[in-house]
Specification:
By secondary structure, this protein is of the alpha+beta class. It is 41% helix and 21% strand. The protein has ten helices and twelve strands. The strands form two sheets. It has an eight-stranded mixed β-sheet with strand order 4-3-2-6-5-1-11-12. A four-stranded antiparallel β-sheet has the order 7-8-9-10. Strand 11 and strand 12 form a beta hairpin. Helix 2 runs antiparallel to helix 3, helix 3 packs antiparallel against helix 4 and helix 9 packs across helix 10.
Length: 350
């Protein structure tokens, strides 16, 4: 009788153990399937006020930001990589005349368009960048191709265009990037610059913020927990001498590291280069245990602002926490997380 009772108790105990293991396995599967995916984007910062934009214009920007978010998030939902999501989101904005990237790029002093872009993978530290290209339809795609298929990190000018042709990337005439409102900006900028004391070297001192910069960017987190960040721009209105800003510079305009965060920047590039803005933010997250909001505020409203620099950043960490600090009047931005979309333009919309 004792033997039978003992066997019964042992059977029940083992059954309980298997039930517990099965329950734990089920819980673990649920946790894996619920890993966060998220995407945050920006379309540039500057003197963006309600007085400058009509309700119709606002609606147009919100719609295009949402389109970019949905394009990138669809990749993440299907289990795609954060790098692919960044590319898809940025290409929507590159193809829109609303933003200073791709089709809406500003003009150089000579009446052309010179485009820059960069991308970085937070799992591998791999990065690609391109500067001063004139005939590549999608600079962010070229940056990604450099990252994946070149032994180099950054290519520029004619050499970058040659590499793009060899890789079969879409080519266009430089006039493809023409838009009337950007051309009018160039005319006004030249008029202002010619009145300045040093028209050749100090043009940026005499132009309003909206002439100085405009950029698009994205940071994505995929189901594998990998962060990727990318940035694309047409640069500064009326720029000369092959000027390059922060957008194609890894650590200044773009940075991604799974152990800290991903960042894409928009602003007065010379300051973002000098103060290594994107990487500095992630270093504060990594080494000082700051949140993305704390780190972003410390750099944008502290270091950058004190130096006289203006602009903003989008930031996301490996848990999907997002921050979008900027010290200008507005910044086109948006994010999608858990399927919920939020887009914003002004300071009071977060």
């Amino acid at each position: 009788m004792r033997i039978k009772t003992t066997l019964t108790m042992l059977t029940l105990a083992l059954a309980g153990t298997f039930t517990t293991v099965a329950a734990n396995a089920e819980t673990h599967e649920q946790t894996d399937s619920e890993k966060p995916i998220a995407l945050v984007i920006h379309g540039g910062a500057g003197t963006i006020t309600r007085a400058n934009l009509s309700e119709e214009q606002e609606a147009t920007y919100h719609a295009k930001l949402e389109e970019a978010l949905q394009a990138g998030y669809a990749v993440l939902e299907q289990g795609g990589s954060s790098t692919d999501a960044v590319i898809h989101a940025i290409q929507v904005m590159e193809d829109s005349p609303l933003f200073n990237a791709g089709k809406g790029a500003v003009y150089t002093w000579d009446g052309e368009h010179e485009l820059d872009a960069s991308i970085m993978n937070g799992a591998t530290g791999n990065a690609g960048a391109v500067a001063g290209v004139k005939t590549v339809k999608s600079p962010i795609e070229l940056a990604r191709t450099i990252m994946d298929k070149s032994v180099h990190v950054m290519l520029s000018g004619d050499g970058a265009a040659q590499f793009a042709q060899q890789q079969g990337l879409a080519q266009v005439d430089n006039s493809y990037f023409d838009t009337e409102h950007r051309y009018q900006q160039l005319i006004k900028a030249k008029q202002t610059i010619r009145k300045s004391e040093q028209p050749e070297q100090q043009a940026w001192r005499y132009l309003d913020l909206d002439y100085k910069y405009g950029t698009v960017g994205a940071v994505a987190l995929d189901k594998s927990g990998t962060l990727s960040a990318g940035t694309s721009t047409g640069g500064m209105t009326a720029k000369r001498y092959g000027r390059i800003g922060d957008s194609p510079i890894i650590g200044a305009g773009t940075w991604a590291d799974n152990s800290s965060c991903g960042v894409s920047a928009t602003g007065h590039g010379e300051y973002f280069i000098r103060y290594h803005v994107a990487a500095d933010i992630c270093s504060r997250v990594k080494y000082q245990n700051q949140t993305v909001q704390e780190a972003g505020d410390a750099v944008i409203h502290g270091v950058l602002e004190q130096a006289g620099g203006t602009g903003g950043v989008i930031i996301m960490d490996a848990q999907g926490h997002i921050a979008t600090p900027f010290n200008t009047e507005g910044m086109y931005r948006g994010y999608i997380r858990n399927g919920k979309v939020h887009t914003a333009i002004y300071k009071d919309e977060d």
